[in-house]
Amino acid sequence: MKRNLLLVAILGSLVFPALVQTQEPQLSAPTNPVYSPGSSVDTQGVKNYLLGPGDVIDVRVFGQGDLNSIAEVDSDGNISSLPFLDKPIAAKCRTEKEIQKDIAVAYSKYLKNPQISVRIAEKKSRAPATVFGAVRQPTRVMMLRKARLNEVVATSGGFTERAAGTIQIVHTEPIMCPQPGEEAQAAPLDPDKPPMEIVKLSELRAGKPQANPMIRPGDYILVTEAEPVYVIGSVFNPQSIYLTEQLTLSRALAIVGGVRKEGKLNDVRIHRQKPGAQDQEIIRVDYNAIRKNKAPDVMLQSYDVIDVPEAGPLSAARILPTLVGALTGGLGNTASAIGPAVFQNRTIR
After folding, report:
1. Which of 1, 156, 221, 222 is the most exposed place for a label (fewest CB within 10 A)?
2. What's the chain's Rg over C-alpha atoms?
């Protein structure tokens, strides 16, 4: 028994250090104050990837180790650095299998029935798309294949509550390998006026096809951030809220919990900054009429201040709570509230 335990201890002392040495270190993700590390829209791999300038291939010639090489697709879209080949191999917008056949034909001048293997070592021809603005995590997305807007935005964690309602997509590069019908998008771009698309967030969420376009490599996708609207006065939760698409007075008051009982519904005031001026205009709104569908709701603008005033202690909205308070023992507090109001309204004869 002791002999067996000694044997186990010896084997453990030999095997355990080897396991520790071969274990790969755990690398933490690099930190960035603005953008997360570049992620890919395709975690399953890319089939039929079309090469472009900057991509790197690994060429293997079986039985001829001196012909093995690593080659990069040049700016013209060709591979021109393979040993003993004086004629470039066209690579742009072609798959590795297509290139493999051309390399085999080229080496057949020197070798009998050459066996060639071509593997893409690095995919660097597509610039990442950048998503920023009102998203959970601004991200640079590696565009290894075609992807639509909703898929690219999903890699950044989706929209935040500050999303204003529009998404701006700026194309910085033409389509490198256009499909039928995309030829016009393959033309060189005007650097002074790059094309831009504007998508409505509501239409994207509704699933409308025109609001979910294809994203190109190098695109900048800005989810616009909303500006504030302020709700103060006699409401349950006074606060600033974000001016999302189609924000009305009724929706704003609902977001803050509604109007308190003592609120003056027939005289809600919206303080709005005049364009190019320092003073404000005051828009007086009968919210009661809006609730009864007797008046149209009011569309809000950036930096509007919604003030719901409090009705006086002798107004129709507050007279009953005032009397109830007096009868239930709050006479002292009630008198202190009513007294000044009554005195101010006395007429001295």
Report:
1. 1
2. 35
